Here is the input.
Amino acid sequence: MKKTKLIMDMPVTVEVVDPWVKTKDIEKVFAYFVYIDEKFSTFKNDSEISKINKGILAKKDCSQDMKKVLELCAQTSEQTLGYFNIEKKGKLDPSGLVKGWAIYNAANILKQQGFKNFYVDAGGDIQVSGKNKKNESWKIGIRNPFKRVENVKIINIENLGLATSGTAIRGQHIYNPHKPDEKITEIVSLTIIGPNIYEADRFATAAFAMGKTGINFIETLQGFEGYMIDKSGVATMTTGFESYVKN
Here is the structure.
């Protein structure tokens, strides 16, 4: 069973291969994403993060989920030498971590129901579990940032997460906290394969903020692989990335 809904201003797709899946099982995942949007969206005036940014709500009084996310953001900032930073012009925007964290939690909702073979995709960031309906590894395309109808690579993964950061869809939405007034133009796309989507997504955001040196940072991380495309269309990949490529 496969279903897609537009949530958080992006398509969220869930496919469960296990034959006993019911619509209500997948609806639990969609309901969770709606909850995340209501809490963390910086575009909703009544979201919890907006109330924090307006000074209506103190961090010490916020929900456990918000405290957890802010804690994870601080941890990620430390692990990436400050290249992951959710504060800009005095406002907090944890979306660079929240999406992957939410997908990871959504996948766990399915696992807790006993499902083993599925994927959860929110805006192109994906957590896969087990096998696809052909009993093979999940096949995921990496889009050509210059021609979005094309894939530059097809990768095969099981029980891993994949996240892409780039400027092809949302423009210049990631910034280098160490040079906040400079646009990141030397690279256009960075795809990360990680042990789960939470890990892949947060490091994809930080590594993209590093510019061309981001791929070197990913190379140093055990259990991660990366594929970077620069403004000239030249690709650079980590040493183990090709093991996932089947085309």
Helices lie at 23-40, 48-53, 64-79, 95-112, 197-209, 214-219. Residues 23-40 form the longest helix (18 residues). The longest strand covers residues 147-157. The chain is about 30% helix and 30% strand.
